[in-house]
Design brief:
Helices cover 44% and strands 16% of the residues. The protein is of the alpha/beta class. The chain has a six-stranded mixed beta sheet with strand order 3-4-5-2-1-6. The protein has three domains: 5-120, Gyrase A, domain 2, CATH 3.30.1360; 127-206 and 371-421, tRNA modification GTPase MnmE domain 2 (Four Helix Bundle (Hemerythrin (Met), subunit A), Up-down Bundle); 216-361, Rossmann fold (3-Layer(aba) Sandwich). The radius of gyration is 29 Å and the shape is flat. The protein has helices at residues 27-35, 89-101, 111-118, 124-135, 139-149, 152-176, 178-181, 186-205, 207-215, 229-237, 280-295, 353-361, 376-397, 402-420, 426-434; strands at residues 5-8, 18-23, 48-53, 60-69, 80-85, 105-106, 217-222, 255-261, 264-270, 298-304, 319-325, 342-344. A hairpin with a 2-residue loop joins strand 8 and strand 9.
């Protein structure tokens, strides 16, 4: 990473402003060749007027502003220069070409953030939070990504690591200097291991909700014809997305709507009514409805309060919520559905929709300052760390040698280090950054 990279840092398409970013040891002299003025003499972090020129002629390509961020006090930790000109694909491409001709190399996707990671400006969890912040599909997801970018998850991982280091210090002192420290006192090792286990358990408790925020969930509306599935989709979406008529069997195919329920991105599927039919087209719709329910994360079984009916059979086992619709027309008969949540709703008046959304999401939002696990990679690393700690505590309780306890404690440390990138393999790191956008 000794060369200087350049990329367009703003989205493609017409815009008021377009930004081109350079980073590397030669960022300043390369920028100076393009704008034909001394960039090194510019006050740091201060915008100055500049014109970008083609290197092969005196043609002015764009007028804009230039700013210098000396390393290590920059996003990447290297010398960074940004040219802020007019947005638009043609103009930005011409200016980018000038910087490339002046000696810069086109950056790979995520290479600016990757350099920030390798230069100690971000750890891996924070870098991933940066990607989550850019791609957030709800306010809740944006807030969680922002907290993680500020280091909330990294600080919690550091606190857990401190407990493990305390346990290791006592174990290794007993192993290396038995004549000085004497025999191992189990309580002095169990206490920090227990604290680490409790912290890990709290993090993992929120992992399911955290992954919903970033990955979203698929929810299928299912039930008999004319119970109000399409009306319920329209009510939840806040717009007339599905055709609603009094004629049973109007919905023949899957209608998908992207929306946010209780802060979680949801892909809501309106499906054909479940019933026996001789209509060839409707039969295909019923089959597709059953297939959608089989693959959905959550199934909303819609019943009609004006004509009580049992829950449809042959539904796949999983997360099911019963919504008794048309509660404005009749008092819903809340039959016993075991542990399945039953919500009275009215697609017409909006009654019960918030309660239904919360039941579908299945978890309330965490405290404003609570760290939250939002990625499968994080959850996997934390679960492996928790298993190693459980094994270490079991070994300690069995009175086995300190060397065996230390092995599992080191294993927990290594798994925990994967979260922030301290023990993550280089190919995994490169894979993570390769999914970033170019220019970030």
């Amino acid at each position: 990473m000794s060369d200087t990279i350049v990329a367009i840092a703003t989205a493609s398409g017409p815009a008021g402003v377009g930004v081109i970013r350079l980073s590397g040891s030669d960022a300043v002299p390369i920028a100076a060749r393009v704008v034909r003025r001394s960039v090194a003499r510019l006050a740091p972090r201060t915008l100055s007027r500049a014109t970008a020129y083609a290197l092969s002629s005196d043609e002015a390509l764009d007028d804009g502003l230039i700013v210098r961020f000396p390393g290590p006090h920059s996003f990447t930790g290297e010398d960074v220069v940004e040219f802020q000109g007019h947005g638009g694909a043609v103009t930005l491409a011409q200016v980018l070409g000038a910087f490339l001709s002046a000696g810069a190399r086109l950056a790979r996707p995520g290479e600016f953030s990757e350099r920030a990671f390798h230069n100690g400006k971000l750890d891996l969890a924070q870098a991933e939070a940066l990607a989550d912040l850019i791609s957030a599909r709800s306010v809740a997801a944006q807030r969680v990504a922002r907290r993680q970018l500020e280091g909330s998850l990294s600080r919690e991982a550091s606190a857990i690591a401190s407990d493990l280091q305390e346990a290791l210090a006592r174990l290794e002192a007993t192993i290396d200097f038995p004549e000085d420290v004497g025999e191992l006192v189990p309580e002095t090792v169990e206490a920090p291991l227990a604290r680490a286990a409790i912290r890990l358990e709290k993090l993992l408790e929120g992992a399911r909700y955290g992954r919903k925020l970033t990955e979203g969930i698929t929810v299928a509306l299912t039930g008999e014809p004319n119970v109000g599935k399409s009306s319920l989709l329209n009510a939840l979406a806040g717009a007339e997305r599905a055709i609603v008529t009094e004629i049973p069997g109007t919905t023949r195919d899957i209608l998908a709507e992207e929306l946010v329920l209780a802060g979680v991105p949801v892909r809501l599927l309106d499906t054909a009514g479940l019933r026996e039919t001789d209509d060839v087209v409707e039969k295909i719709g019923v089959e597709r409805a059953q297939a959608a329910a089989a693959t959905a994360d959550v199934i909303i079984v819609v019943l009609d309060a004006t004509r009580p009916a049992p829950m449809p059979t042959a539904l796949p086992a999983g997360n099911v919520v019963v919504a008794i619709n048309k509660s404005d027309l009749a008092t819903p008969q809340r039959e016993s559905f075991g542990t399945v949540p039953v919500i009275s709703v009215s697609a017409k008046t909006g009654a019960g929709l918030l309660e239904l959304a919360q039941a579908v999401v299945g978890s309330s939002q965490p405290a404003a300052d609570a760290p939250l696990v939002t990625r499968a990679r994080h959850e996997d690393a934390l679960r492996r760390a928790a298993l190693h700690i459980a094994d270490a505590r079991a070994t300690l309780a069995a009175g086995l040698p300190a060397e065996l306890i230390a092995v599992d404690t080191h294993g927990a440390m290594a798994a925990l280090g994967e979260l922030t990138g301290q023990t993550t393999r280089e190919e995994i790191i490169q894979g993570i950054f390769s999914r970033f956008c170019i220019g970030k």
